[in-house]
Design goal:
Layout lengths: L35 H20 L3 E6 L6 H12 L3 H4 L5 H7 L8 E7 L6 H16 L12 H13 L2 H9 L11 H9 L3 H9 L5 H13 L13 H14 L4 E7 L1 H6 L5 H9 L16 E7 L3 H4 L6 H12 L6 E4 L4 H9 L10 H16 L2 H7 L14 H7 L4 H14 L5 H11 L16 H6 L7 H26 L3 H4 L3 H18 L11 H7 L12 H13 L5 E3 L7 E3 L20 H16 L10 E8 L2 E9 L10 H4 L6 E5 L9 H9 L7 E4 L3 E2 L1 H17 L8 H4 L5 H29 L12 E2 L6 E3 L14 H16 L15 H15 L5 E3 L3 H14 L3 E3 L2 E3 L6 H12 L5 E3 H7 L10 H14 L3 E4 L2 E3 L11 E4 L6 H15 L9 H31 L1 H4 L9 H17 L3 H9 L8 H9 L1 H9 L3 H10 L4 H15 L7 H17 L33 H16 L15
Parallel strand pairs: 1-4, 1-5, 2-3, 3-4, 9-10, 10-11
Antiparallel strand pairs: 6-7, 8-9, 11-14, 12-13, 15-17, 16-17, 18-21, 19-20, 19-21
Helix pairs in contact: 1-4, 5-11, 9-10, 13-15, 16-19, 18-26, 23-25, 26-27, 31-33, 35-36, 35-39, 40-44, 40-45, 41-43, 41-44, 41-46, 43-45, 46-49, 47-48, 47-49, 48-49
Protein name: Phage resistance protein
InterPro entries: PglY_5th, PglY_C
Organism: Nocardia pseudobrasiliensis
C-alpha cells in the first residue's frame, strides 16, 4: 500500500515557530492561502482603514474566528499590506482588495501597532505601554509620549526647582538633561528649542493632562530629570492616553494608527473570576472608537481578535452568571464595532493548500490526486463510518462543515477530528494552531501513514491533552489535569495489566494499541462533550472516529471487539461507564478525587468468606427468581410451573465438601420433591475435586442434583470483594448508608460525588460479575481463553439418580439454565402420557369445575355432546380435555364418549386387573392414573379425570354405602366409590320426566343415565324442600278458616283437598333419599282429578297464599258474615269470597280475593244506612230550633263481643240520622 508521504509533502519535523504567528511578527507570506472569503475579509479591513483616513474618525472591528481560524495570520498579512510590503501585495487572491486600497494607500504613512494582552494588568497598561514600547523601537530619538500620570512628577519637579536656581533648572530642562547642546539627541534638541521660562513652565504645569503644553512639559521633565518614569506604570486613563498617543503619532508624521489587539477577548476570559475587573476593563473597549474629545489628531483603527461570542466560546462548562457577564461586555460594543468573520469553513481549504497539496518529487500532482481520490472514495463507501466522520460541527451550528467537499480537502483528516481539534484548542486557549497540530500528526506518522488510513480522533490526545501547558481557567485546568492523571495513573496501567505486557512492549502490541486508542477517544470526549461527533460514544461511533486504526480478528466484528475490550476495562475502571443494550454508550467520568480510596475504609471482615458466599447467593437467587431471606444455610422453596401444576423444587446453597455445614442429611431429598444443591464458585480450603469426591461417597437414588460451578480467578475474587465493600458502604441489605460515618473527614460534596461513583461502580460490578457467574455455573460455555474462571474437566451438574442423564447447563442465563434443569428433572420424574403441555400454566379449580359441568351435560345428552359457548370456555376445555384426551372439543361442541376419553378404557382395563369390574374405589383408581408411568398430576386434576370417567361410564358416587352428589372436583375423597346405581324402569322414567315439568316446573333430561337420575333427584328434591313447609301451613290456614271461606273439610276435591295432596307429595319427596324411588313417586304422584299443572300451581303459590291467609282481618270478615243473613251487602261480600275459595289456585288467586273481601267488609261496616226523608218544614219567622250539641262517647274494648256492642251503638246513631265520627286508640295489650 502506498505511503501518504509519497503523494503529499510531509516534512520530517516541525518546529515551534513554523505555525505560531503573532500579529506583530512577519507572516509566512509565501505559504499563505487566500480563500474567496478571506479575500472579501481583507477587502473589508482595508476599506475600514481607508474610511478612517478619509473621514478622520476612528474605527473598530472584531476579528471573529475560533482557535486555528488564522486570526493572527490575517492581522500579520494585513499589517504587511498597510506597510507597503510588495511580497504581501503579491499574495495570490489579494489583487482585488489591494487594487481597491490603492486609491488611498499610496503615500500614506500607517502606524501599525500590535498588542498582546495576556498578562496585562489593565487595558491602559497594555495599550499605552505597548505604544510606548513600539514607538520607542520605531523612533528611538523621538521624545516619549506623556502617557503616564504626571501630577506626582510635577510636584517632585517643583521641589527640585526650589533646590536649584531657576536659571540652572531651566538650563538643564532646556538642554534635555544634557550638560550642553553638543551631541544632543532629538529629544534634547526639541527641549532646547522649547526655550522654557518660568512663565511658560508655570502655564504648562497648570494645563490639563493631555493638552499639548502639559505633554510638552512632561516630556521635557522626563527627558531631563525622570527617565525612569517612562516605565513607572502610572498611566493615564485610556481616553486621555489615546489623545496623547494620537497627538504623538501625528507629530511623527503618521496619517492613521492601526491597532491589532490580539488576545484581548481571551485575556478577559481568563479573568472571569473577577467580575468587576471584566466589567470595568471590557467597557473600556468603547474608547477605541469614542472619545470625550471631539476629534483626535489622527484616527485609530482597531482590530480585536475574538473567539466567537464569549458565552459560546467558553462552551457549556461555564455557568450562566459568567456567561451573561461576558455577553453584556460584548453587547456594549454593538453599533460601534464592525465584525469581520474568519469562518471555520476556511480551514479545510487552507489545510488543503498548505499541508495536503498532492504531488511530490516522485509522483506527479495529477497522479497523486487520483490515488488519494480513490482512497477517499473507499472510505465514503462505508456509510456508517462516513456519516460519523462527516460531522464537522463543534457545538450548535458552528463548525468547519459537514459535507463531502470538506472531508475531501481535509483527508486523511476528517471533519470530526478537526471539529474536535478546534474545540480542544478553544478549551486550552493556547496558540497551538490547527495547522500546527495537523502537521505534527502527519510528521509523527510519516513512515507509517498509508493513503487509505484516516487519522483517528484518538491521535489528538497526546499533543493537546497529555502534553503541553494546561488551561488557565481553574475548572478546565482541573479537568485536563484529571484526564492526564486518570490516563497515566489508572487507565494505562490497567490496559497494560489487561494485555499482560509491560510499558516497554506497549508500542509494538497491537491489542494494547487498540485499547489505548479507545481510552484516549473517551478521554477527549469527556473534555469536550459538546462536540456532536463525540455525543453518545457507542462502539460503532468509537470505531468510526478511529476508522482504520481499530481492527478485529474477524472483519466486520469491530464493534463487538470494542464492546468486549471496554467492558473488560470497565470491570476495574470505575470511571468508565457503560449503558445497557446491544450497542452500549461508553463514557468516562473525570474527577480530581480518587473515590476508590473509600474502599480502604471498609473493615476487613466485610470481605470474609461468609460475606462473599452470601453475596453470590443473593445474586444467584435474584437470577433464579427465588427469595434468599431464609439465611445462609436455609432451604428455598421454588415453585415450578410445569404441565399445568406448580411443583416444588427445594434449593439449597452450601459448600458441598464441607461436612460441618453440609451434613449428609441435608444433601438427601425427601420423597418425590427434588433438591438442587448449589455450591459457591470459590473455596478457601478446597477445590471442585473435593466436592466431586464427596458426592461419590453419598447414597444413590435420591432426588438430589448438585450444581458445582467452576472457581473464579483471583482477579474476579478481587472484584467480588470490591462489590462487597461497596455494598457495605452503601448499606445494601437495609443496614443503612455507612459512607457518611466512615468518610466523615471528606467534604459533603466529595462524599456525595463518591456515593454516585460507588453506585455506578456497584451497578457495573454486579453486571460484570453476573456475566462471570454465567461462565462459572456453566451457563455460557467457557473458552480456553477465558481467564475469569479456572476450568477443569469435571461435570458442573451431578445427580444421585444413576439413571438420570444430565448434560451441561443450557439456556444462556442462570434463570434459563435453572428452568431447563428443573424441567429435565420433572420430565424424568413424570414421563407418562397423555399429559398437559410443558408450558401449560397451572389449571385452576374454577376451570376444572367448568370442564366437569360440560362433562355432566354431555353425559346426559343422547349424542354425548355439550355445547360450549364463548371463546374463553372453548379454549379452557380444549387445552385441558384435548391434551389430556379427556373428551374433546370439536368446533363448539364438547364430545364425551369411549373414543374421545382415553381414560375410560385405561381405568376399566387396569382396575379389572385387580378384580374391580362393578365398583371402583377411588383409592384403587387414583394410583392407576400414574400407570404405566407417573404423570405428576395435581390432586384436583386427578379428581377431574375420575369424575369425567364416572360420567362417561354412567357411574354414581357412593360414600359409606350412601349415594352422594358431586358438583365440584374438590369434593372427591379417597373414601368414595364409583359404581353403577339402581335405575328406574324406562316407562317410569319417561312418566316422571313428563310430569316433572308441569308439577315442579323443571325441564329434565329425557336420556336416562346415572347423571340424569342424580340430576333428577337433586332438582326435584330441591323444589320439594323449598315448598314443603309453606304447603303444610297452607293446609292449616285453609282448615282453620274453612267456615268463612265456605270450604268443606271432608271434600275429596277442591282447593283444600288439592293442598292436602300436594303437601303430602312434597313431604314424601323431600324425605326420600333414593333417586330411583323418587322418580317413581313423581311418575305415580296422586293429585286427584285435577291436572298436574293445577297441582303444581297450588304448591308453587302456597307461600303467598299462606301469607295472605295469615295476614287477613278475620274478625272483620266474621262480623260481615254474621250480618250476611240480614244485610244484602254483607251477603254479597261473603258469597264472592267463598266462590273464589272454592276454585283451585290456578283458576282464582285466593290472596287477591281476600284482599278484595277485607276492603269491601271495612267499607260496608262504616257505611251509614239512610232513613226515610222527613216532610218539608213550614217556613216560620220564629226563632229556629237550636242545633243539637254533639255528644262524645268513649268505650274500652278488649274482645270481639265488646266490639260488636260498640258497633251496635254506632249503628243506632246512624239509623237515627246522626253523623258519627269514629276514631280509636290502642292503649295496651289485653
Amino acid at each position: 500500500m502506498t505511503l501518504l508521504r509519497d503523494l503529499i509533502k510531509i516534512p520530517t519535523s516541525v518546529s515551534d515557530g513554523d505555525f505560531v504567528v503573532k500579529a506583530s511578527e512577519g507572516a509566512d507570506l509565501a505559504n499563505y492561502v487566500v480563500t474567496e472569503q478571506l479575500r472579501d475579509d481583507f477587502g473589508d479591513a482595508l476599506r475600514m482603514v481607508g474610511h478612517a483616513v478619509a473621514t478622520g474618525r476612528s474605527q473598530a472591528a472584531y476579528l471573529h474566528g475560533s482557535f486555528g481560524s488564522g486570526k493572527s495570520h490575517f492581522m500579520s498579512v494585513l499589517r504587511e499590506i498597510l506597510q507597503h510590503n510588495n511580497e504581501a501585495r503579491a499574495i495570490p487572491g489579494l489583487a482585488a482588495p489591494i487594487a481597491e486600497a490603492d486609491s488611498w494607500l499610496p503615500g500614506r504613512k500607517v502606524l501599525c501597532l500590535t498588542f498582546h494582552l495576556l498578562g496585562a494588568q489593565s487595558v491602559e497598561q497594555a495599550v499605552l505601554e505597548g505604544y510606548l514600547n513600539q514607538i520607542t523601537a520605531l523612533h528611538p530619538d523621538a521624545p516619549p509620549p506623556a502617557v503616564h500620570r504626571s501630577d506626582a512628577m510635577l510636584a517632585d519637579a517643583a521641589t527640585l526647582r526650589q533646590t536649584m536656581t531657576d536659571e540652572k533648572f531651566f538650563e538643564v530642562l532646556g538642554n534635555g538633561g544634557q550638560p550642553g547642546a553638543a551631541g544632543a539627541g532629538l529629544a534634547s534638541m526639541m527641549a532646547q528649542r522649547q526655550g522654557w521660562t518660568a512663565q511658560s513652565y508655570d502655564a504648562a504645569a497648570a494645563a490639563a493632562p493631555g493638552t499639548k503644553e502639559r505633554d510638552s512639559l512632561v516630556s521635557a521633565l522626563t527627558t531631563a530629570f525622570y527617565t525612569g518614569a517612562v516605565r513607572s506604570g502610572e498611566y493615564l486613563d485610556l481616553d486621555t492616553g489615546l489623545q496623547v498617543v494620537t497627538r504623538h503619532a501625528k507629530s511623527l508624521g503618521y496619517d492613521v494608527a492601526v491597532l491589532f489587539l490580539d488576545e484581548l477577548i481571551l485575556w478577559l476570559s481568563t479573568r472571569m473570576s473577577d467580575i468587576t475587573f471584566v466589567n470595568t476593563e471590557g467597557a473600556k473597549l468603547n474608547k477605541l472608537v469614542e472619545s470625550s474629545d471631539a476629534a483626535r489628531p489622527l484616527p485609530l483603527v482597531s482590530f480585536i481578535a475574538k473567539q466567537r461570542n464569549l458565552e459560546e466560546f467558553l462552551g457549556p462548562q461555564v455557568g450562566g452568571t459568567e456567561r451573561e457577564v461576558l455577553a453584556d461586555v460584548m453587547r456594549s460594543g454593538q453599533g460601534r464595532f464592525d465584525e469581520i468573520i474568519l469562518a471555520d469553513t476556511n480551514l479545510p481549504e487552507i489545510t488543503e493548500g498548505r499541508l495536503l497539496r498532492p504531488g511530490t518529487e516522485t509522483v506527479p500532482k495529477d497522479e497523486a490526486r487520483r490515488i488519494i481520490d480513490e482512497a477517499f472514495e473507499a472510505v465514503r463507501g462505508n456509510r456508517e463510518v462516513w456519516d460519523i466522520l462527516l460531522s464537522g460541527a463543534q457545538y450548535g451550528d458552528a463548525g468547519i462543515g459537514s459535507d463531502r467537499a470538506t472531508f475531501r480537502r481535509l483527508y486523511p483528516f476528517s471533519p470530526a477530528l478537526v471539529a474536535t481539534l478546534v474545540a480542544l484548542s478553544q478549551a486550552l486557549q493556547r496558540e497551538r494552531t490547527a495547522l500546527r497540530v495537523m502537521t505534527e500528526l502527519l510528521v509523527e506518522r510519516r513512515n507509517t501513514l498509508q493513503v487509505n488510513d484516516v487519522i483517528g480522533v484518538a491521535a489528538l490526545f497526546d499533543p493537546l491533552v497529555l502534553h503541553g501547558a494546561l488551561p488557565d481557567r481553574p475548572q478546565l485546568k482541573q479537568q485536563f489535569q484529571a484526564a492526564r492523571d486518570t490516563y497515566r495513573q489508572k487507565l494505562r496501567p490497567l490496559l497494560l495489566a489487561l494485555n499482560g505486557i509491560t510499558e516497554e512492549k506497549a508500542a509494538g502490541h497491537e491489542q494494547f494499541q487498540l485499547d489505548d486508542r479507545l481510552v484516549r477517544t473517551l478521554l477527549v470526549g469527556a473534555l469536550v462533550p459538546e462536540v456532536p461527533a463525540l455525543h453518545n460514544l457507542t462502539a460503532s461511533r468509537l470505531h468510526a472516529l478511529n476508522f482504520g486504526s481499530i481492527s478485529a480478528p474477524i472483519p466486520g466484528y469491530e464493534n463487538q471487539t470494542i464492546i468486549s475490550r471496554l467492558s473488560k476495562l470497565a470491570d476495574d475502571a470505575g470511571e468508565l461507564h457503560k449503558t445497557d443494550g446491544p450497542d452500549p454508550v461508553f463514557s468516562l467520568k473525570l474527577s480530581t478525587v480518587d473515590y476508590d480510596k473509600l474502599l480502604e475504609l471498609v473493615p476487613h471482615n466485610e470481605t470474609a468468606t461468609g460475606v462473599l458466599q452470601q453475596l453470590v447467593r443473593d445474586m444467584v437467587c435474584i437470577e433464579l427468581g427465588v427469595g434468599s431471606s431464609e439465611g445462609t444455610f436455609g432451604e428455598l422453596a421454588h415453585m415450578k410451573e410445569w404441565r399445568g401444576r406448580r411443583h416444588q423444587i427445594n434449593v439449597k446453597f452450601g459448600n458441598v465438601r464441607d461436612r460441618e455445614t453440609m451434613p449428609d442429611a441435608t444433601l438427601y431429598a425427601e420423597g418425590e420433591t427434588w433438591r438442587v444443591i448449589i455450591d459457591y464458585p470459590f473455596d478457601n480450603g478446597g477445590n471442585r475435586r473435593d466436592d466431586l469426591a464427596r458426592i461419590e461417597g453419598l447414597e444413590r437414588e435420591k432426588n438430589t442434583v448438585f450444581w458445582l460451578p467452576y472457581f473464579l480467578s483471583d482477579d474476579l475474587m478481587v472484584r467480588l470483594g470490591q462489590l462487597a465493600k461497596i455494598n457495605y458502604l452503601l448499606g445494601s441489605g437495609g443496614t443503612g448508608d455507612r459512607l457518611t460515618m466512615l468518610a466523615a473527614d471528606w467534604s459533603i460534596a466529595d462524599r456525595q460525588q463518591g456515593k454516585i461513583y460507588l453506585q455506578q461502580r456497584q451497578q457495573h460490578l454486579k453486571s460484570s460479575l453476573l456475566d462471570t457467574l454465567k461462565l462459572a455455573y456453566g451457563v455460557v460455555k467457557p473458552r480456553q481463553s477465558d481467564t475469569a474462571v479456572e476450568l477443569d474437566t469435571g461435570p458442573v451438574l451431578v445427580s444421585l439418580r444413576e439413571a438420570l442423564p444430565l448434560g451441561d447447563p443450557r439456556g444462556g442465563t442462570v434463570k434459563a439454565a435453572f428452568d431447563n434443569l428443573t424441567s429435565d428433572l420433572l420430565d424424568w420424574s413424570f414421563p407418562g402420557t397423555p399429559c398437559l403441555p410443558v408450558a401449560e400454566k397451572p389449571v385452576t379449580k374454577g376451570e376444572l369445575n367448568k370442564v366437569l359441568g360440560f362433562a355432566r351435560t354431555a353425559a346426559a345428552d343422547v349424542a354425548r355432546r355439550a355445547k360450549v359457548e364463548g371463546s374463553t370456555d372453548q379454549k379452557t376445555v380444549q387445552r385441558i380435555c384435548n391434551n389430556l384426551q379427556l373428551g374433546e372439543i370439536v368446533e363448539n361442541q364438547y364430545v364425551l364418549n369411549a373414543t374421545t376419553c382415553w381414560w375410560s378404557t385405561h381405568l376399566v382395563r387396569e382396575a379389572a386387573k385387580d378384580g374391580y369390574t362393578e365398583q371402583f374405589p377411588v383409592q384403587v383408581l387414583r394410583p392407576l392414573l400414574d400407570k404405566p408411568s407417573p404423570r405428576g398430576f395435581e390432586r384436583d386434576l386427578q379428581n377431574l379425570i375420575l369424575a369425567v370417567f364416572a360420567h362417561e361410564q354412567q357411574l354414581a358416587w357412593y360414600q359409606h354405602e350412601g349415594k352422594i352428589d358431586i358438583q365440584a372436583v374438590q369434593q372427591i375423597t379417597d373414601s368414595m366409590t364409583l359404581k353403577r346405581p339402581p335405575m328406574p324402569e324406562q316407562d317410569v322414567w319417561d312418566r316422571a320426566v313428563r310430569r316433572a315439568k308441569p308439577i315442579f316446573g323443571i325441564q329434565l333430561a329425557e336420556y336416562r343415565t346415572p347423571a340424569t337420575l342424580e340430576d333428577f333427584g337433586t332438582k326435584i328434591r330441591s323444589v320439594a324442600k323449598a315448598h314443603v313447609t309453606a304447603t303444610d301451613m297452607l293446609v292449616t290456614e285453609l282448615t282453620e278458616h274453612a267456615d268463612v271461606l265456605g270450604l268443606d273439610t271432608e271434600a275429596r276435591s277442591g282447593r283444600l283437598a288439592t293442598a292436602r295432596r300436594v303437601a303430602k307429595l312434597l313431604r314424601e319427596i323431600a324425605s326420600e333419599t333414593d333417586d330411583a324411588v323418587l322418580v317413581g313417586m313423581v311418575a305415580d304422584a296422586e293429585v286427584g282429578e285435577i291436572e298436574d299443572l293445577v297441582a303444581g300451581t297450588s304448591f308453587k303459590q302456597s307461600d303467598q297464599v299462606k301469607a295472605a291467609l295469615a295476614g287477613t282481618q278475620w274478625d272483620l270478615l266474621d262480623a260481615v258474615a254474621q250480618r250476611a243473613s240480614h244485610d244484602g251487602g254483607a251477603k254479597l261480600v261473603i258469597e264472592e269470597l267463598r266462590a273464589a275459595a272454592g276454585y283451585e289456585q290456578s283458576v282464582c288467586d285466593l290472596a287477591a280475593a281476600l284482599k278484595v273481601a277485607v276492603s269491601a267488609a271495612a267499607a260496608l261496616l262504616v257505611k251509614p244506612v239512610p232513613s226515610p226523608a222527613p216532610p218539608p218544614a213550614a217556613v216560620s219567622n220564629s226563632n229556629p230550633t237550636p242545633t243539637r250539641v254533639p255528644t262524645r262517647q268513649q268505650r274500652d274494648v278488649a274482645d270481639t263481643s265488646a266490639i260488636a256492642a260498640v258497633m251496635a251503638e254506632i249503628e243506632n246513631e246512624v239509623t237515627a240520622g246522626h253523623n258519627v265520627r269514629v276514631s280509636w286508640e290502642v292503649i295496651g295489650d289485653s
